[in-house]
Amino acid sequence: MQDTFEYLSRRSGANGEAAFSKLLVESFLRHSIIHAVALFTLGLGFVVGARVGNFPDFGLLYEYAFYLVVYFWIFGCAYAAFRLIQLALVHRAKSPANHLLVSFRQLLTDRNRIANGVNGLAAILIFVSGFSVLKGAIAVLAPFSWDQAIAHFSTKLHFGRASYQWLWWILESPLAIRLLNFCYNFWFVVLIVTVFSSAVATRDTLLRHQFLLSFMLLWLIGGFFVALTFSSAGPCYFARLGFGDLYQPLMDALQSANKQYPVWALSLQERLWNGYEGLSSGTMGISAFPSIHVASSVLFALYVTRLSPRLGVVMWIFAAIIMLGSVVLGWHYAPDGYAGMLISVAIWKITGVVLSRTTIASRFASEIPSARPEAASV
């Protein structure tokens, strides 16, 4: 990293530094709405946190951070290997390793990318800091009271049967449960890659801002305000809360599968419950309605489809798998996922329209030649 900054310093004198400072300021102004939402969430987190005395489960956060580093290392090595093979066999480069180093250096010293990355990542980190407190406060501010109503509605909606009862063909296969659980956990990788790549993109387009803003609003509105209004724990905690044994066969099937293949969802559900009951320090929060896993997966699909229709098809399939996994793994009632889809699409469309009509929109056309104003259309 030090070599990167030394390289950047050699390329830029006083005029270059002034130009880069101007670039940062211009980027900050274009990100003003995103920064405002992030700061609002952080401020709300301070207010709510002070009221309920809630703080995140840092042990679980550190565990997530560890896996994040591992994932980045694996994917980074895989990408480097892919590029080396591509340079050697496709482009016939005389020195593939040297070309790879040059491309990484260009990547790390791209001033537009740095300016966008500083603003995009700063906003995301501020937002996450505030939201992590809000998420854990939901059950304190509004004890679970909607599980029975949502479960009853789900049964009516699915012709008199709980949604999981239509999926026994999956639940009878421990391997299928294992694969679904892997995909469900892989959602975290997809989230990090999609948000990170968007935040540090070179081209600062309206589409990029539409995604980042929609991402924040989805979690803030759907993951806190709607979740607070319809506070519910989910099928995996249905019996523990004294609501009956409607979902006990589902949990028994997962426990049975766990004897053959580890079902990670079960251990995480137990850990979240311990945080809820105060048996562990801090909490990451329990909330079922709406499903942010499903909602965010739909948002990723909407965004990626605009970038690459073919890759978008893959993302829509992934969103469908997440919807299926949310029910099979006992995290959500099916209506949680349906609501998440609707909220995601609504926020995506509204955000696109609003951004295209703000004064910020004109800056993309005039200051970033490669940006397309029409990218925010719906």
Please tell me about this protein's structure.
This protein is mostly helical and 378 residues long. It has one domain. The chain is 74% helix and 0% strand. Helix 2 packs parallel to helix 6, helix 4 crosses helix 5 and helix 6 packs parallel to helix 10. It is globular.
Give the low-confidence spans.
365-378
Distance between the termini: 40 Å
The number of helical elements comes to 16
Number of strands: 0
Instruction: Estimate percent helicity.
Output: over 70%
User: Which band does the percent of strand residues land in?
Assistant: under 5%
Shape: globular
Strands, helices and their partners?
Blueprint: H1 2-11, H2 14-30, H3 32-52, H4 58-90, H5 96-108, H6 111-141, H7 147-157, H8 168-171, H9 174-199, H10 206-229, H11 248-258, H12 264-277, H13 292-307, H14 309-328, H15 334-356, H16 361-367
Helix pairs in contact: 2-6, 3-6, 3-10, 4-5, 6-10, 9-11, 9-13, 9-14, 10-13, 10-15, 13-14, 13-15
Concise description?
With 378 residues, the chain is mostly helical. It contains 16 helices and no strands.
Keywords:
single chain, mainly alpha, 16 helices, globular
